[in-house]
Amino acid sequence: MDKKNIIENEIEKTLKLLEESERLTPNPFFYAKIEEKLKEKGGKNRLNLSLIMKPVALIALILLNITTIAMYVKGDDATSRSEIVSILSSDFGAGNFNTDILNLR
User: How many C-alpha atoms does 80 have within 13 Å on its Cβ side?
Assistant: First the structure.
């Protein structure tokens, strides 16, 4: 026999062994043990990001609002406010509407 036939025979023998072999059944408690280990590791090292991110987002929004209010109060120039209101109203298509709502004074 040549080398190619020997290799083909060995491959066929191996494939027959794989087809004929019976599947091993694991211990019935194997999956329960794995789940228990995953729960132990998951509970210790995992941080709940929603508990951290919700207060951080709330603080960021509050700081943004405070900054916006401070910038609005600091600018006492009424003409610049009216110009900003007119620019914004024209940008958002509110040119025909009454913009007195935006004047806080």
Answer: 7
Measured distance CA(65)–CA(71) in Å, rounded: 10
Name 94's Cβ contacts closer than 8 Å, sequence gap at least 6.
88
Question: Which residues, at least 6 apart from 75, have a Cβ–Cβ distance to it below 8 Å?
Answer: 81
pLDDT tens-digit readout, 14-43: 888 888 777 778 888 988 898 888 888 765
Who's near 99: CB < 8 A, 6+ residues apart? 85, 86, 89
Query: pTM of this prediction?
Result: 0.33
DSSP state of 24: P
pLDDT tens column, 35-76: 888 888 765 555 667 778 889 999 999 999 888 877 777 765
Q: 85 near 99, Cβ under 8 Å?
A: yes
